[in-house]
Amino acid sequence: MQPEQKPDNPDAFFAVDLRVGRIVEVRPFPKARKPAWQIAVDFGEFGKRWTSAQVTNYTEAELLDRLVVCAVNLGKKRIAGFTSEFLLLGAIGADDELVRLLRPDDGAQPGEVIA
């Protein structure tokens, strides 16, 4: 277990725009170095955006229509020719391989702010 880390700059955390999204499309991503999906998420009035995520411990069926928590203002990143537009958040297991996606309680709506 890692010791608790003290924040260097709490303002940096609060500058991250965390939003609720709903996964609406999942595609295989064979060009990725590590196994990954290309995932489209609906953010309500903010529209649909794409990301690449190493969450292959979930099947396509388990991902579709799932509510997720995402950081949407970190900029875009090119991954194997694909543009990832946001970061899908999850807890990383002790083996650094298994990712458990974060999700809000039922009733949360796409686009809502995570506070």
UniProtKB/TrEMBL annotation:
InterPro entries linked: NA-bd_OB-fold, tRNA-bd_dom, Tyrosine-tRNA_ligase_regulator
Keyword annotations of the record: RNA-binding, tRNA-binding
Signal peptide: none
Keyword RNA-binding: yes
Pfam families (alphabetical): tRNA_bind
Gene Ontology terms for molecular function: tRNA binding
Keyword RNA-binding: yes
Domain of life (superkingdom): Bacteria
Stretches assigned to the TRNA-binding domain: 12-115
Protein name: tRNA-binding protein
Protein source organism: Tamaricihabitans halophyticus
